[in-house]
Amino acid sequence: MSFDVTIFGVSFDYIWLLPLAVLLPALAWFAVRRSWLRRQQRFAKLGELDVVSRLVPPGLTRPVGWRLARVATAAALLGVAVSGPRWGVERSAVRTKGIDMVLALDASLSMMATDDKPNRLDRLKQEVRRLRELSRGDRVGMLAFAGRSYVLSPLTVDAGALDLFLDNLDPSVVGQAGSSVARTIRQGTDLLMLSNSGADKALVVMSDGEAFEDQADIIAEAKRAGEQGIYLVTVGFGTPQGANIPVRSADGSVELKRDDQGQVVVSKYDPQLLQAAAEAAKGTFIPAEQSDKAGRIRQALSSLRTQQRTISAGETSTPRFQLFLLPAVLLLLLDTFLGDLHGRRRKRAAAETTALAASLLFALALNGCARPEDSAARAWRSGRFADAANAYRTLMENGDRTPRALYNYGTALVAADSLDRATEALERAVDSPDADEKYRATFNLGLVHLKKGLVAESEAAAPELDAALALYKKVLLGNPTDMDAVWNYELALRKKQQGGGGGGGGGGGNSQDQPSPDAQAPTPAGGLGQSQADQLLGSAAREERQVQAKRQKQSKVEPPPGGKDW
């Protein structure tokens, strides 16, 4: 059985084995000491120790203090290693394949009918969650529609953002009552056509089919989607017999929905519009009677062309047992080697001593002739970001004005939190003719604006967040699978929706959260610190739920043009 317990920032998989780090050294010390004392006793029986020590190998009679230290240290390290120490963060990723898919979800009042238990909307949410479990490699966008349609989320692999919008989906989210399938198909098509990835595109419309609009308009939009290469899947919910629609009044009581004449409304599932739309786009219609709708949707989309993507699989603490196991093994090997040396240590030959001295002098000469870019890279790797920035600036003053040098200088300034100076350098590096250098510089320039936007006041934060969004949009257009860019884009978007500013600083305090310049192969930033961004997004999620709950209680739904508001 394993336990994950943290002590002083270090977690252990098997905390109950940690006492071995004390018991094993004590046992090793006792065993080695006892063995040495017994040997000395046997030698004493042979005669005087001074005489016996001249007749036996010196290793058998010399003190064992250093051996005690070696064996006890190795035992302590082994005790720590078997307890499974972990520290630091290891970000794991999964390579998978997927398509681009937009989910258009009916949030009209008729979806609250209870002929699908507990109601149609809850059943729809269940199928969406199951579909996403079957489609982990897909980029998913989300629309909500009733009398109008709204984009809840652009195409993304951010499961947290999609869960947030799905949890808060209800009829109050869409301002106008009714059902407009034609507008939804058009908006879903337009959203998919903004993507330039190599994967095929699909639009999944989930509704009860009770739409009060001309069927010809729906068919026309469905044909347009098919002509654009979008595979349309329509999914029905409800029953032909229908059910009443419970609504909550202002005083909190629940009553049945009535029409303008005071008659209780019976909402019925209508498959004709959904089937006509699927046939017009040469897609697939899944009737409400079918079970396992999510599986059938996945089966219908299985023939589409996918694109390989890298998806974050979460973060775990990094195992560090090898840092204790390796020196323990080396100490034991050293002890074995020294134990086999029974003779006197031979004198080092003069030629060998001379060669060693020459090697040391050659190493010192190489160290003195180290290139300035190497010293800058060493300063970066050791976490001395300000020194690295100064070293890269010296290179530029000596004539190196290449985009690579500008990128390294600007990235080191970002890590040192000298954001204003970093902006100027990275803006010049963005003009690099090399596509890779241009991509990296754009990423880190976006991080500069994101950091500024998080710490600025509301009025000053907006332009910085807008700049970050624009830069990360360029990055994602070039590489839609960049999970760090997706993360930072979503973070900037949430902070802007909250009014910007006050977001707790930038970039984290350790080098793994910083951009990474390198004299040979510079790499883009890893985004903000994961724990810091988790806190910000968690706060954003809580505020979003509060806003949605307040809207649900206070919003007044506009009547649709046709008069029927369900």
Q: What this model shows, in words?
A:
By secondary structure, the protein is α/β, with parallel strands linked by helices. It folds into three domains: 100 residues, no CATH class; 219 residues, von Willebrand factor, type A domain (Rossmann fold); 157 residues, Serine Threonine Protein Phosphatase 5, Tetratricopeptide repeat (Alpha Horseshoe), CATH 1.25.40.10. The chain is built from 19 helices and 14 strands. Helix 1 runs antiparallel to helix 3, helix 14 packs parallel to helix 16 and helix 16 packs parallel to helix 18. The longest helix has 27 residues. It starts with a strand and ends in a 12-residue tail after the last helix. About 13% of the residues have low confidence.
CATH superfamily of the largest domain: von Willebrand factor, type A domain
Q: Treating each run of at least 4 consecutive H or I residues as one helix, how many helices? A: 19
**How is the main sheet built?**
6 strands, mixed
User: What do we call the CATH topology of the largest domain?
Assistant: Rossmann fold
The overall pLDDT, averaged over residues, is 76
Poorly predicted segments: 342-370, 501-516, 518-526, 528-537, 551-557
Number of strands: 14
Distance between the termini: 55 Å
Strand content: 5-15%
Cα radius of gyration in angstroms: 34 Å
The dominant shape is: elongated
The secondary structure category is alpha/beta
Helix content: 40-55%
The first-level CATH class of the largest domain is given as Alpha Beta
